């Protein structure tokens, strides 16, 4: 059943309206053309017959009514088209001399063609219409004169148009029938075709609702490789991406919960120890306070990262740009991790150039970039491994190169590690949003981030920033 807003109903109404209009115009044009063709054919027949009239009634042989009557009798007797064309011959007193009509009760006053022939310069008259008995006819009259111009009489040709009109009517009826069949065929075919499309749309709509409800494993069966098929592919792809996003989000929540729990546990444990202990030596107390301060700072870093991620989601990551020496921020970031690298038995080297051109940037945000990348490099490098930091200036760019010989990133993960929540190695600590923030900060500085990695061999990250140009 079709609703008011049904596509099928709208299509049927519009299609029927258009098809019916085209057919109606076609029928009208066909009927007019058919009528013109047949009527013109009849007219040509009558005109040809009347044109031959003067071969019999010539002014050279006609000198009186007697010779006219004799010629008229001969003409009426030898007329060959009596079955289709009726002939009536009138004398100079408007009376019928001879006629092939059985009924001779013709009223001259009603014969417009006869009166026209008597009063026109070309001695010719034509009439199409109904006679006194109601029959539709075409009549043609030619008047006859002697050489001296004396009026002798007239010859009238009449043929019925009823049979012709019946033929035209039959043709129109056949065309109407064919049109109706065509409308039924087009409508049936269209409804069948539309139903196949609408059924697919309904299934896609229901699938979209199921996906919106959280069922990301649902799939739409693709039947044809057309636009609907492409839509099915798009919905299936959307479901896969949402499923992956949901998985990554859950892993993120789990990971960030763990990241928060670890320092909180340490802070709570030492706080309770300090609070409940009767007496603590100064060394133990200082150690506890150091751990509390360290873990509190770690918590602050995690919260700040989450705030940055929230700003990133709203596309409002603040960047306060100023002319800066990028070596100072990079050197400070390396210094922060130097002790950690030594403690973990890893080698962190920094080949610092004497000078590079200044850039336009936010020193705090850039330091955040360097800290995040060096932290990841150390995190994914085993004991005894190395991380190297290099800087060079090339053309109009400053390029920072951070290389490790750690576990590397599998090829299928390289293009995704800068996506939010994504972690190439879920066994390692981390929220999975660090590189996403790094990528946005680099873009905000009109820079570029390139990740080159080979599994089990290490990773190289190249970051480039445009230098300040002086005119």
What keyword list fits this structure?
12 strands; alpha+beta; 10 helices; Helix Hairpins; 5-stranded mixed sheet; 5-stranded antiparallel sheet; 471 residues
Tell me about this structure.
Helix 8 runs parallel beside helix 9 and helix 9 (about 365-380) packs antiparallel against helix 10. The chain has helices at about 5-50, 55, 65-80, 110-120, 160-210, 225-275, 280-315, 325-345, 365-380, 435-445, and strands spanning about 85-90, 95-100, 125-130, 135-145, 150-160, 320-325, 345-350, 360, 385-395, 395-405, 450-455, 460-465. The mean pLDDT is about 80. It has ten helices and twelve strands. By secondary structure, the chain is of the alpha+beta class.
Reconstruct the topology from this structure:
Blueprint: H1 7-51, H2 53-56, H3 65-78, E1 86-91, E2 96-99, H4 112-119, E3 124-130, E4 136-145, E5 151-160, H5 162-212, H6 227-276, H7 282-313, E6 322-324, H8 326-343, E7 347-351, E8 359-361, H9 363-379, E9 386-394, E10 397-404, H10 434-444, E11 448-454, E12 458-466
Parallel strand pairs: 7-9
Antiparallel strand pairs: 1-2, 1-5, 3-4, 4-5, 6-8, 9-10, 10-12, 11-12
Helix pairs in contact: 1-5, 5-6, 6-7, 7-10, 8-9, 9-10
């Amino acid at each position: 059943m079709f609703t008011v807003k049904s596509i099928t109903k709208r299509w049927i109404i519009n299609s029927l309206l258009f098809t019916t209009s085209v057919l109606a115009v076609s029928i009208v044009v066909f009927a007019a053309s058919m009528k013109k063709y047949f009527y013109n054919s009849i007219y040509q027949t009558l005109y040809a017959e009347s044109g031959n009239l003067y071969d019999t009634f010539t002014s050279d042989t006609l000198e009186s009514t007697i010779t006219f009557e004799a010629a008229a009798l001969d003409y009426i007797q030898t007329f060959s088209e009596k079955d289709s064309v009726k002939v009536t011959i009138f004398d100079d007193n408007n009376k019928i001399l001879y006629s092939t009509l059985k009924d001779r009760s013709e009223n001259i006053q009603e014969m417009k063609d006869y009166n026209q022939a008597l009063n026109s310069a070309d001695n010719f008259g034509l009439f199409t219409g109904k006679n006194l008995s109601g029959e539709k006819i075409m009549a043609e009259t030619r008047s006859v004169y002697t050489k001296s111009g004396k009026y002798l009489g007239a010859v009238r040709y009449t043929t019925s148009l009823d049979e012709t009109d019946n033929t035209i009517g039959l043709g129109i009826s056949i065309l109407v029938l064919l049109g109706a069949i065509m409308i039924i065929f087009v409508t049936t075919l269209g409804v069948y075709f539309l139903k196949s499309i609408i059924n697919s749309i309904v299934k896609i709509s229901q699938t979209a609702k199921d996906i919106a409800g959280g069922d990301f494993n649902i799939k739409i069966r693709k039947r044809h490789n057309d636009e609907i098929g492409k839509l099915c592919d798009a919905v299936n792809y959307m479901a896969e991406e949402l499923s992956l996003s949901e998985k990554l989000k859950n892993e993120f929540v789990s990971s960030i919960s763990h990241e928060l729990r670890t320092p909180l546990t340490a802070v709570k444990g030492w706080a309770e120890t300090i609070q409940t202990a009767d007496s603590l030596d100064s060394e133990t107390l200082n150690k506890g306070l150091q751990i509390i301060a360290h873990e509190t700072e770690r918590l602050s870093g995690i919260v700040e990262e989450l705030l940055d991620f929230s700003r990133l989601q709203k596309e409002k990551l603040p960047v306060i740009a100023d002319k800066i020496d990028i070596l100072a921020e990079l050197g400070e970031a390396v210094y922060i991790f130097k002790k950690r690298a030594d403690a973990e038995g890893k080698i962190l080297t920094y080949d610092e150039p004497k000078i590079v051109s200044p850039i336009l940037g936010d020193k705090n945000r850039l330091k955040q970039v360097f800290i995040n990348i060096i932290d990841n490099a150390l995190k994914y490098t085993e004991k005894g491994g190395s991380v190297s930091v290099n800087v060079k200036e090339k053309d109009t760019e400053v390029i920072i190169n951070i290389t490790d010989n750690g576990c590397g990133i599998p090829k299928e993960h390289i293009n995704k590690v800068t996506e939010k929540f994504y972690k190439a190695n879920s066994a390692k600590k981390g929220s999975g949003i660090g590189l996403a923030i790094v990528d946005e900060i680099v873009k905000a500085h009109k820079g570029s981030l390139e990740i080159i990695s080979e599994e089990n061999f290490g990773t190289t990250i190249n970051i480039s920033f445009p230098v300040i140009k002086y005119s």
